[in-house]
Design a protein that fits this description.
Number of domains of chain A: 2
Largest sheet of chain A: 10 strands, mixed
CATH class of the largest domain in chain A: Alpha Beta
Structural class of chain A: alpha/beta
CATH superfamily of the largest domain in chain A: Dihydrodipicolinate Reductase, domain 2
Distance between the termini of chain A: 38 Å
Number of helices of chain A: 10
Strand content of chain A: 25-35%
Helix content of chain A: 25-40%
Oligomer: homodimer
Largest interface: A-B, 65 and 65 residues
Radius of gyration of chain A: 21 Å
Number of strands of chain A: 16
Shape of chain A: globular
Chain lengths: 359, 359
């Protein structure tokens, strides 16, 4: 068995701190190089994040991609740069862990996925919560027809309070950097959780709510949408940079109800809760509940971001050592999420017309 | 000071059991008579609910209304009968506590309210949760600009699993009895909670989601809608007879988030919780939360339905003893709720067109 997968970090974005730590914790991954247009920034990043002094500094992303010890790159760049740099990385045979949203739209993502496929390169987007063991435990609960039944209604909320500086200067409010705004950033999580809850069965229609809040440059700061399946299932989501930090996932089935209030980042690193109720009933007098929800506690040795890196690196190792083809499970999930995001965006742009979702 | 307000119960509906107990518990109310088209049913109701043997039995609603000891009536009849019997009661000077929804539509409610006003009769609808001290405590939290700020997003869910018998035979699925179905029954609570959260500032527009589930007779069994304010506030609700019992109220403000999972009927009779978070933040590493929500516990000596009866009876006593005019706070809340319900119904009937809300 080979050693850990050597990662190159492309740029010193704020989020890269978290992934740098995760790569350090993951047993099968290690940071070997940092690339930045400013070598001083890269050196500071290496020092600030406790990386060994032997970590290589590259003064350009091209140089990072030419480093033979870099087997995989982590791409935390603004969304508008993803296509260029992921395609460049894949072209050089580097596996890619890319921040979400992986692309500005599905057409762009398809170009990315095609190049990855041609080059036998693994790609995964950085949606961490799906790698927490709590998520697997939730799947067990939802899959049990006696406990949960069929999913009927999903509601997902991710909002946080952007500071005045964030709302003025963050890349996520700039049309040329992260033009999808709150929909691409916070909304990605909402859509991913809704698709997850519905076992990746795609809705038929997306309808954005009228009058999303946009900044002067037309970037969405807050929006809502509903998703509709042919069998009557409905989901709603709310994503916003303009309200108190909230991360709600509610999944209601014919026989059960699941609640999380921290679905994206668990309240605590080492364990996370699921609030789950089944066959809920009131008492005979209809004055209180006869049944109460249960709290399932799921512990984890590694934080979810390290589990994501571990899973990605495992797939890369299999390609490297056993000549496996890249796994297509994760990119398919990315693509489904992006397809729904596109439909919501199209509905926003059309003034809330229903938009058909075609995979 | 006079004695307790004498109540007549109009019909022996299932829900009347709960209110009968509540009238018994309320310190300023007492059941003096039960009216039913079947005197045997009324006698059984009196025995089953532990009412004194002196409780009068009336073989018709007319006779109940002619009983001089009946000062107020509780009307748990199907919605389609409300207008007729509330107007009859008010015409005889009886105060009225009427089950929700108080009417089939606003025009009908306005006829009811007019007759009550002309006859100086107090009317209140049976929305119990608003009378729980938890609701007042929630108002304190939401009113604090430092804790909650401005409301941005409200989500309310009330669904329960109707049994096969319920879905076939309950009055709430019959077009000629409770033609508003899940919208009138469960949806009333959702709308009332959304209006409450927004301090009764009415939304401008209601948009029903496409394809609500209806039974063969066209009665709504499950539906959703969004409500929109001119300043960008948004609310959604889901009401259904087809999913596991769930009673969620989520209110997100610029600085705080409030969660209840039992807003209509608290998990326990003697105390109820509020989950409230303010200025929520993640830790520096963005791997967990730096702040957690607080649980506020609100105890109550009387269950909320008895507090509702107490408040209603207090208003009736003031009219009786001090010659006060009927209080218009509660009927105004009823009317606002009914106006929004009408708009949602109109949107459903128009195939999800946005409907303007005019008070």
């Amino acid at each position: 068995m080979g050693g850990p997968i050597g990662f190159g970090i492309m740029g010193c974005a704020e989020i890269a701190r978290k992934l740098c730590r995760a790569i350090g914790i993951a047993p099968n991954a290690t940071v070997v190089a940092v690339g930045s247009r400013s070598p001083d920034k890269a050196r500071k990043f290496i020092a600030d994040n406790g990386l060994p002094a032997t970590t290589r500094v590259h003064g350009s992303y091209e140089a990072l991609l030419d480093d033979p010890d870099v087997e995989a790159v982590y791409v935390p760049l603004p969304t508008s740069l993803h296509a260029h740099w992921v395609i460049a990385a894949a072209g050089k045979g580097k596996h890619v862990l890319v921040e979400k949203p992986p692309a500005l739209n599905t057409a762009e993502l398809d170009r990315i996925l095609e190049v990855c496929q041609i080059n036998d390169v693994q790609i995964m987007d950085g949606t961490m919560w799906m790698h927490h063991p709590r998520t697997a435990k939730m799947r067990d609960l939802l899959s049990d027809p006696n406990l949960f039944g069929q999913v009927k209604r999903t509601n997902s909320i991710f909002c946080f309070n952007g500071s005045p500086d964030f709302l003025q200067n963050d890349i996520r409010v700039k049309p040329d950097l992260d033009g999808l705004g709150a929909l691409g950033d916070a909304g990605w999580y909402c859509i991913s959780s809704i698709l997850w809850a519905n076992d990746y069965d795609l809705p038929k229609t997306a309808i954005a709510f009228p009058n999303p809040v946009k900044n002067e440059a037309g970037v969405v700061l807050s929006c809502d949408a509903s998703l509709h399946w042919e069998d009557g299932r409905v989901a709603t989501f709310h994503c916003s940079f303009l309200a108190n930090l909230t991360m709600d996932l509610t999944i209601i089935g014919s026989k059960g109800t699941l609640h999380l209030n921290d679905f994206i980042i668990p309240f605590e690193e080492s364990s996370a809760n699921i609030t789950f109720a089944s066959d809920s009933l009131l008492n005979d007098a209809v004055t209180a509940w006869a049944t109460l929800s249960q709290k399932h506690v799921v512990s984890t040795d590694l934080p979810q971001e390290a589990l994501m890196v571990t899973e990605f690196s495992r797939l890369v190792s299999e390609i490297k050592e056993s000549g496996s083809k890249p796994d297509y499970k994760w990119p398919t999930i990315s693509r489904k999420t992006q397809v729904v995001l596109d439909a919501v965006k199209a509905s926003i742009d059309s003034g809330s017309k229903p938009v058909q979702i075609v995979f």
